[in-house]
């Protein structure tokens, strides 16, 4: 029987009141049944239900009306100049886009010349900050040449922090041009253990002239893309040969003759022979490219001597198949043959790191190599955990510390200059807004990208930090000074 309105109601804990309101909103039980089961009145159940519904309505409704003033800004000339600098860098706006923003939203007409003047002033400050940055903390440099139309842009990036220490548009990309920029970087403390770059002759000659014996490792990314392109091209040719054979075969069938034209039979036989050769060549080259990628150039792999033997085997097999399609296979084979030592240089660095780990933990080096090879397997596979358990049983208490040391050593051994390609993709959206790239504009971009914090990253240590913070290990304390109040162009604010 329902309890009266004036009946005494015993206190109900907060969690129970929440559960009661949720059950009432869900409608799984009647209010009378809920009241009876909890020993409460129906009025009490309705009260909790109203509270829960009000809370839900408040959570899903707009916090403030659209027309309510949230806050007010003190608009000064300094603030306007900050907006003019921020729009092209953060929003990738053009000069005229900045003009439209100020005109349409702030009712403030400015000229193209004024926007240009403000950005040039910011670029001068950025250039000064860039020139004062100490680069001595960079251990591995990544070099590449990117292009805006016909203009080469020389780029250099720190492999660890992604800090861009070189970004310069030049008329040439020869040894002298590279050498001058690398000497300038050396004056700011840049003395890497080694660099990674593609097979560009000017780049490598310039580094040798500027830095002497500093090694320049080969970039695995570019050669793998080139090999994959060869395999894909041969596969498409094989598919085309199959299509031609099927077309001829269907044509003979449509003729409806018991004894088809002898010429069609000859063409069909030739098409079958071409299909077989193209398919076999495509399959063999695809297999060789996969071996090269997964067994030779992979970070987790055998020692340097074994990799060299496997590399030579792949090159020899490509050479054996070169007569089948010399125009396509020969350039790739020659590139591999000429770059072998540079491409495998990372393996020598990793071998030294693994040997040091073995000495530090007093374990046989083959066990350390097994821990390295274990990283080739996905952690979701049963084989990974079987080998993991066996390795742990043999190492005992040293396993976890050693396994973490191997993982860190592999993470600190870069094989490619792909971070420069990543920089290229980030720069491309800015380059498309300009017909010509000036040195001051690139200085401003470099400053912006080096001091902009990563919102997200696959590397947890990079999230919320800028490349400069990652390189120096210091907080971001660079504050731009107020820009010059003077302006000689029309449209002064």
Quick structural overview:
This protein is 62% helix and 6% strand. The chain has helices at 14-26, 31-38, 42-60, 77-90, 95-106, 112-132, 175-187, 201-211, 220-255, 262-296, 304-321, 326-343, 345-361, 365-373, 382-395, 399-411, 418-431, 439-451, 467-472, and strands at 140-148, 151-158, 164-169, 194-197, 216-218. It has a five-stranded mixed beta sheet, with helices on both faces.
Care to describe what's here?
With 493 residues, the chain is of the alpha/beta class. The protein has helices at 14-26, 31-38, 42-60, 77-90, 95-106, 112-132, 175-187, 201-211, 220-255, 262-296, 304-321, 326-343, 345-361, 365-373, 382-395, 399-411, 418-431, 439-451, 467-472, and strands spanning 140-148, 151-158, 164-169, 194-197, 216-218. It has four domains: 1-72; 74-205 and 416-493, no CATH class; 220-343; 347-411, no CATH class. It is 62% helix and 6% strand. Helix 9 (220-255) runs antiparallel to helix 10, helix 9 packs antiparallel against helix 12 (326-343) and helix 13 crosses helix 14. The longest helix has 36 residues, at 220-255. The chain is extended.
């Amino acid at each position: 029987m329902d309890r009266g309105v004036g009946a005494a109601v015993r206190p109900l804990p907060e969690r129970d009141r929440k559960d009661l309101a949720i059950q009432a909103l869900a409608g799984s039980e009647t209010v009378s049944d809920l009241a009876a089961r909890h020993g409460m009145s129906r009025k009490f159940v309705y009260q909790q239900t109203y509270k829960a519904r009000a809370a839900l309505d408040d959570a899903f409704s707009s916090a403030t009306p659209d027309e309510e003033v949230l806050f007010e800004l003190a608009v000064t000339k300094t603030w306007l100049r900050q907006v003019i600098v921020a729009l092209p860098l953060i929003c990738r706006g053009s000069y005229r886009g900045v003009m439209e923003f100020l005109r349409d939203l702030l009712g403030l007409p400015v000229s193209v010349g004024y926007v240009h003047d403000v950005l040039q002033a910011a670029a001068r400050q950025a250039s000064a900050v860039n020139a004062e940055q100490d680069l001595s903390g960079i251990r591995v440099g990544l070099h590449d040449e990117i292009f805006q139309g016909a203009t080469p842009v020389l780029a250099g990036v720190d492999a660890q922090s992604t800090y861009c220490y070189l970004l310069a548009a030049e008329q040439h990309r020869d040894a002298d041009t590279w050498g001058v920029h690398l000497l300038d970087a050396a004056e700011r403390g840049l003395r890497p253990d080694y660099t990674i770059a593609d097979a560009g002759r000017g780049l490598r000659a310039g580094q040798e002239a500027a830095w002497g014996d500093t090694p320049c490792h080969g970039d695995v990314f570019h050669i793998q893309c080139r090999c994959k392109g060869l395999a894909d091209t041969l596969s498409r040719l094989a598919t085309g040969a199959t299509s031609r054979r099927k077309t001829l075969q269907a044509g003979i069938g449509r003729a409806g003759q018991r004894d088809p034209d002898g010429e069609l039979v000859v063409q069909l036989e030739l098409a079958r022979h071409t299909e077989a050769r193209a398919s076999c060549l495509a399959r063999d080259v695809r297999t060789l490219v996969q071996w090269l990628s997964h067994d030779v150039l992979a970070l987790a792999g055998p020692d340097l001597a074994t990799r060299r033997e496997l590399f030579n085997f792949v090159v020899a097999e490509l050479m054996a198949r070169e007569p089948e399609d010399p125009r396509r296979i020969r350039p790739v084979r020659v590139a591999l043959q000429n770059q072998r030592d540079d491409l495998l240089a990372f393996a020598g660095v990793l071998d030294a790191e693994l040997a040091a780990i073995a000495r530090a933990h007093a374990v046989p080096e083959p066990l350390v190599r097994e821990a390295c090879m274990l990283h080739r397997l996905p952690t979701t596979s049963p084989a990974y955990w079987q080998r993991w358990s066996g390795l742990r049983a043999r190492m005992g208490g040293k396993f976890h510390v050693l396994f973490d040391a191997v993982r860190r050593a592999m993470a600190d051994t870069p094989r490619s200059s792909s971070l420069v390609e990543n920089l290229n993709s980030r720069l491309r959206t800015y380059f498309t807004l300009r017909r010509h790239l000036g040195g001051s504009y690139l200085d401003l971009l470099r400053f912006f990208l080096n001091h902009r914090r990563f919102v997200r990253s696959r590397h947890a240590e990079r999230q919320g930090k800028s490349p400069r913070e990652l390189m120096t290990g210091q907080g971001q304390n660079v504050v731009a000074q107020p820009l010059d109040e003077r302006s000689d162009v029309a449209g002064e604010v």
